[in-house]
Amino acid sequence: MSELRCPNETFIADIIDKYTDDIIILIEFR
Predict the structure, then answer these.
(1) In whole angstroms, what is the distance from residue 28 CA to residue 4 CA?
(2) For labeling, which of 7, 10, 27, 30 is most exposed (least CB within 10 Å)?
(3) What is the pLDDT, as a whole number, of residue 27?
(4) What is the pLDDT of residue 1?
(5) pTM for this one?
(6) What's the 3-state SS for 1-30?
(7) What gap in Å lies between CA 4 and CA 25, rounded to an integer?
(8) Which residues of 1-21 are buried (b: 16+ CB within 10 A; e: fewer)?
């Protein structure tokens, strides 16, 4: 199960990275 968790965590981290990037762009536009 730990093997499944590792890629899953990086996948979630990727989404969070993209999400925060979008938020930073939105804040800068305001």
Answers:
(1) 37
(2) 30
(3) 83
(4) 47
(5) 0.43
(6) CHHHHHHHHHHHHHHHHHHHHHHHHHHHHC
(7) 32
(8) eeeeeeeeeeeeeeeeeeeee
Q: Which residue matches tokens 């981290």?
A: 13
CA dihedral 8, 9, 10, 11 (to 10 degrees): 50
Return per-residue pLDDT of the chain as tens, 30 residues: 456 556 778 888 889 998 998 888 888 876
Residue tagged 């305001």 (tokens): 30
